[in-house]
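Sanity check

After download, print the first record. It should look like this:
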Amino acid sequence: MRIAFYAPLKSLNHPVASGDRQMARALVKALERGGHSVELASELRFYLREPESKSFDALKIEARAEAARLARLWDRDGKPDLWFTYHPYYKAPDLIGPELASAFAVPYVTAEASYSRRRNAGLWADAQALVARAVEQAALNICFTQRDRQGLADAIPDAALGMLSPFIDTSAFRETPTRGCPTRLVAVAMMRPGDKLESYHMLAQALGSIGHLPWTISVVGDGPAREEVKAQFAGLPADRIEWLGAIEPAAVPDVLYGGGIYVWPGFGEAYGIAYLEAQAAGLPVVAQDIAGVPEVVRDGQTGFLTPSGDVAAFASAIERLLTRNDERTIMAAEARRFTLEERSLAAAAARLTELLAKIPVS
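Expected structure tokens:
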């Protein structure tokens, strides 16, 4: 099929790296691997940082102009077989695809759409109504987590839903890893207020309680909360912490290969691509049993998921892997097998082919 792809939150070509951009690119690769021709329909970013009506109105005008541009293009060159929107939610609804798909009788598909009733207030309620209409219109809404699936099912009972497990492009991890340092911990995360800062705070607390063990940690990440993050770790020995800052995505595998355990509490994680990357590199994970993390980490097999907010349990899980090298080695091998075999582009391409084959295309 010829597929028009759109990511309202962040284009494939956006200059700032993020999990959203990474997953959008991975989806395009998986669709292409399945034999489809994928074209970037638009680079218009429809993102509302705050519920402010002036910005909302301005973005809607831009979206109408972009839809008109694409309509002229389709009239001239022919319409695509399918429209595919990645990650529409209350701050980034799709105001281009539904209108065009309806006007040109093109099947409309979403991936990782989300709906949260607690956002139904003020302007966010208006934005969510747009998401709900798009989801209801869609021939298929592809969900990455059971939490997102349930949220859509509860809010839009007639929505057509399908599941696709979170995945990554594992090509950078195909080489058999050299033996990393088993006591080297690794964390990869942006430094920003909110959930990320809360996770850094919990991580620092946990490490402070296991100072008697010979761990070191490499931290990859930067952002506006950099100073607050470093302040959380101020009570820990400076020579145990390697602050790597923001690095190119291509350099992340080498950092992971050098470690032994991936540690990240995961407050607010939709699922966490970094967890899959760590496991692909052969690192068992210590995280919380929270949000979408259980979708990408198998508790007791590829790592440990501890109760939400329980610092002692989180620290204890790290200690267990630091002191039981045989268990860590077994988990490391299973983590790598799980990701390379079950969460790869090939696996995602096969599942997408199965899902899209059920959609009638004119």
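If your output differs, re-run the checksum step. Summary of this record's structure: The two ends are 11 Å apart (CA to CA).
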